[in-house]
Amino acid sequence: MASAAAPASDRRKTPPARPQPVADVAALPVENTPLLVVGLMAATLLQVLDTTIANVAIPHMQASLGATVDTITWVLTSYIIASAVAMPITGWLAEHIGARNLFLFSVAGFIAASALCGIAQNLEEMVLFRAIQGVAGAFIAPLSQSYLLDSTRPSRHPQMMAIWGMGIMIGPILGPVLGGYLTESWNWRWVFYVNVPVGLLSLAVLMVTLPTREQNRRRFDLFGFAVLAVGLSSLQLLLDRGPQVDWFDSVEVWIYTGLAASAVWLSIIHFVTAPKPLFDRHLFADRNFVIALLFMIVIGMVLFATMALLPPMLQHLFGYSVIDTGLVLMPRGVGVLISMQLAGYLTRKGVDTRLMVGFGFLIAAYSLWQMAHWSLAVDTHGVVVSGLLQGLGIGLVFIPLQTSAFATLPPQLRTDGSSLLNLCRNVGSSVGISIATVALAHNIQASHSTLAGHITSSTTSWVDISTVDRYQGLGDTVLQVVDAEVNRQAAMIAYVDDFYMMMWMSLAAIPLILLMRGRTGPHRPEDDEMPPME
What we know:
By secondary structure, this protein is mainly alpha-helical. It folds into three domains: about 30-215, Growth Hormone, Chain: A (Up-down Bundle); about 220-275; about 280-525, MFS general substrate transporter like domains (Growth Hormone, Chain: A, Up-down Bundle). It has 19 helices and no strands. The protein has helices at about 1-15, 35-50, 60-65, 75-85, 90-95, 100-120, 125-140, 140-150, 155-185, 190-195, 195-210, 220-240, 250-275, 285-315, 320-350, 355-370, 380-405, 415-450, 475-510. Helix 2 packs antiparallel against helix 11 (about 195-210), helix 5 (about 90-95) crosses helix 6 (about 100-120) and helix 5 (about 90-95) packs antiparallel against helix 18 (about 415-450). The longest helix is centred in the C-terminal third of the chain and has 39 residues, at about 415-450. The chain is globular.
């Protein structure tokens, strides 16, 4: 009995087997990763810059191309619609013709379209070339993000997402500054010509370093793509044309609304019932990925709506020049740079992504609360501090969100996932800018009416309004001065109301973190096993 007990005792003392470590190996190893990152980010930054760099050159284009105020906006609209329609098929094209080929064709097409935009002689040519530029550029951001993930070890994914996020977030901030400088110093055509040398350098680097990804051809869901394209196009036209045709007082807007609603409904039904839809249904079985999509819509609405409001406010109400406006808004980019590096470090250390996302939204909401307390007496210091804080908050949200979204996605779904995340950010920015612009115009009118009702002889001690008409031309000048000041005050009130609205939007998004999984860490091999969908 003693001899039988001894082995049992020995077995109890034997330490348990250690779990096998997760393989920290890149899905697509490359020889020179830093050079590949430079090529990828140069192409990505060019594409993101072009979403905003042309905005400040629109008045100059209008005079040069002989366009009207209504028609010149198609220079921006054509780019946005073409990009939104093309982006969802990034994953299918990457598998059909090869991700490397698609990326190289996209960068080359973007360079060629930029050069054609620079030499356009009329509005029709410009709109056509901008549409081509939008289609070519639509594939750059999703492919660059998936290539950064595939070519680096899983343990370095947070760092790669920080680098990629800096290009995505800083691009819209630098765009108006660079566009204004090029337009004032040379010509509006240089807004597009500047893409050519940088793009060619990026293309040369990518041709040498970009690896080839395994192809897995799948059937193209033509009906799913068609209804999604109609829905996205109608939504973009609704948002862009609405302010020009007085929204729902116009039959045109009702047509866009009906098309968008019908197409979105058909897209959902088709996605649920089709045997092989445009996007793999496993994407939407991942809870963190779905929550990330919702957060990206909010980020697009808050960040890009704020960036659309601040430049005209600073220039029209405070008298800033285009260059000064860019310099004052630059600390926002500095905040993004700092917090993205911090978020990458904390993610690698295993800090719960939910805490970082929630804290980041709180910081962003606090910065919007500061902006909601601005007045016409706010100085440069106040603008810089609030911008820096907002950059810190957005950067702290973006990296954990991206890392969490891709943490449990297998590599073969990354391109589709990246295209959906970028699409949600773009749609969110379009919706946010439209909502902010409509609210601004409405609140300016309402505030002007309220303020004007208080302009009486008793409230204007420096001039008697009731007798000012006796001074004829001088009296008209006095009334114009009073009206201009009322307009300035009404506009400032409307901007403050918009900032309050975006603050509450940021706070309302925070409870979504309760639906996220708190797991952090690199992608595991067992995550690649996708169970069959019911």
